[in-house]
Design a protein that fits this description.
This protein is an alpha/beta fold. It is built from 9 helices and 31 strands. It has helices at 3-6, 190-201, 251-266, 290-303, 325-338, 350-355, 372-382, 410-422, 455-464, and strands at 9-16, 23-30, 40-47, 57-61, 66-71, 83-88, 94-98, 100-101, 106-111, 117-125, 134-140, 151-153, 161-163, 172-175, 206-210, 237-239, 244-249, 270-277, 309-315, 345-346, 363-366, 387-391, 426-429, 472-475, 483-487, 492-497, 503-506, 514-520, 527-534, 539-542, 550-557. The protein is globular.
Length: 559
């Protein structure tokens, strides 16, 4: 995707406001109107005759970002200037949105209206040229089918997610730590869109990503190849990672990250944004310093309006002895204090989530244990929030050996994802040639012998579109082996047969008279009816694919 496609139209006009004897000149930049997720930008340049504020009506769709720009020159240290706008909307709704410096003597307040109707705003700033600016906008209905509002916890099923508009969300995660870096040198989205399109087309809807990462700390294959994105072309701060200037932030870097997150939204993918990472050779500011706070505040101000955003304070937050729990808690609370939209927040650290459940909205766990199902099931029983296995030790192999973990076989990796699902949790996938700094985006062109098996997750997403996962709970009664999910009323059982067994022996609840059964092959996507059966004790259900991994859905009838 070229910049001309991202910024498809450019219009300018001059309007005299009937309320104030001033002239307002603005520039509207819109992305492709067919797929317009990137914030529309309104540049408001006031030529005041009386010094009074101007109210100019704009328009934005519900849950869509709009950038309201405020030019102000002659500011010596622009990143130190505070700016916020208080928005008042329908039904007494109020949102206080922090602004951010966007270069070119311009500050931005990025706003996404949450209710249809008129919204009015007024700024408060640490610079006279930005202070007490007023305006209004009209929120109109959302017309884009890929925009659903923010991701929230389902109040009726608090271990599960749902979108704000009620759309169900079956989470299938994919870690792409260096996604931000793929097109930094060119300013396009060519490579970024290529891999996101592949990922989205295979059922993944939750990308775990860093704001910035520099390099890995272990030996890898692929160094020096076109797939090596170590030492990114742009640093997140001023200067370089080797000689950083933490007093400023790299505007060009963040403008590109804007486009990446916006493109994820077009593909109905949640951006699970890890604000920090400790083992990727990033030269961070001193913990808790003014520069550290400035970075965090800037990220929150710039990205909170994207409705497809979830916060993660840090990848492997407490693993490397870089910081303690108090620092992570401070960072999380600082995010919450500045995020007017209350996006979901987690921490990539099981111990932190266990000890601080009130600080996170869902529990993230990393575990490689061979008894994965048992561990996840134990956590499920302890929690009353969604459980997200963010790293289970399975890293599917590819052309380069980068980080093998304990499981490389695609079949074994898939089975571990299903173990999480049948424990009532959600899970994440890793491919060795995309999850870190070695990124192969042209997956479809690879030799099938080394191509990743992303199609397994396409079949998974398609299958669970027909299964009310949020109504199922882990269970044991009724089966002698395998894993089981069941509805509370016993109208639906979902069974998982691991590799090595050839059948289930199944007994439904006593009030069931008949049931239909259907097999699902998670490797091919094939479904095969097993038939309709009368209830008997201990019926053998033999898998049509022998000892291969399989699922069996049983729908029960009591009359």
């Amino acid at each position: 995707m070229q910049p001309s496609e991202v910024w498809a139209t450019h219009q300018s006009s001059t309007v005299v406001s009937p309320r104030w004897p001033v002239q307002a000149v603005w520039c509207i930049l819109q992305s492709n109107p067919a797929r317009a997720c990137f914030p529309r930008v309104y540049r408001l340049s006031y030529q005041h005759e009386t010094g009074g504020p101007v109210a100019q009506s704009l328009q934005a769709q519900k849950w869509h970002c709009i950038d309201i720009e405020f030019p102000c020159g002659n500011i010596e240290r622009p990143f130190e200037i505070s700016l916020e706008a208080e928005f008042a909307g329908p039904g007494g709704a109020t949102l206080t949105i922090p602004g951010f410096y966007n270069g070119d003597d311009t500050w931005v307040v990025r706003f996404a209206p949450t209710a249809e109707g008129e919204w009015r705003y007024r700024t408060a700033a640490g610079a006279q040229g930005l202070d007490k600016k007023e305006g209004a906008l009209l929120c109109v209905p959302n017309t884009k089918p890929w925009v659903h509002g923010k991701l929230v916890i389902d109040t009726d099923h608090p271990r599960h997610f749902v979108y704000e508009d009620g759309t169900r969300y079956f989470t299938i995660g994919f870690e792409l730590d260096w996604l931000f870096a793929l097109d930094l040198e060119t300013g396009t989205l060519d490579k970024t869109s290529q891999i996101i399109d592949e990922v989205a087309g295979n059922g993944f809807n939750h990308i775990v990503m860093n704001v910035y990462a520099h390099d890995v700390t272990w030996e890898i294959q692929g160094r020096g190849t076109p797939h090596d994105y170590s030492n990114p072309a742009r640093f997140v701060f001023g200067g370089t990672n080797e000689e950083p200037d933490h007093s400023v932030l790299n505007i060009a870097f963040f403008r590109h990250l804007d486009r990446v997150i916006a493109y994820l939204q077009e593909k109905e993918i949640i951006a699970h944004l890890m604000v920090y990472v400790w083992n990727k050779r990033v030269n961070w500011p001193e913990k808790g310093s003014l520069a550290d706070d400035r970075y965090l505040d800037y990220v929150v101000a710039r990205y909170q309006a994207f409705s497809n955003l979830v916060w993660d304070v840090s990848k492997e937050a407490l693993t490397y002895d870089y910081c303690g729990q108090d620092y992570i808690t401070n960072r999380g609370r600082r995010i919450r204090a500045r995020d007017a939209y209350n996006r979901l927040l987690t921490v990539h650290d099981d111990n932190y989530c266990r000890k601080n459940p009130g600080e996170v909205d869902f529990h993230s766990v990393q575990t490689w244990r061979s008894d994965l199902y048992a561990q996840m099931l134990g956590l499920y029983g302890e929690l009353s929030m969604p459980l997200f296995n963010i790293e289970h030790g399975g890293y599917e192999k590819g052309p380069y050996k980068t980080f093998t973990g304990d499981y490389q076989d695609p079949y074994a990796c898939l089975e571990r994802n299903y173990e999480c699902i049948f424990a009532g949790a959600y899970s994440t996938y890793y491919w060795q040639c995309s999850s870190w700094n070695i990124v192969i985006g042209e997956v479809s062109s690879l030799d099938p012998k080394v191509r990743p098996h992303w199609e397994y997750f396409k079949y998974m997403q398609e299958y669970f579109a027909d299964i009310p996962y949020h109504e199922l709970m882990p269970a044991r009664e009724g089966v002698m082996s395998g894993l089981l999910l069941a509805k509370e009323d016993h109208s639906l059982y979902l069974l998982f047969k691991p590799t090595g067994s050839h059948a289930f022996h199944f007994t439904p609840s006593p009030d069931v008279k008949t049931y239909d059964a259907e097999w699902f092959n998670p490797v091919t996507g094939e479904r095969q009816a097993a038939g309709t059966f009368e209830r008997i004790h201990f019926r053998e259900m033999e898998c049509p694919w022998g000892e291969h991994m399989a699922l069996l859905a049983i729908r029960c009838y009591k009359e």
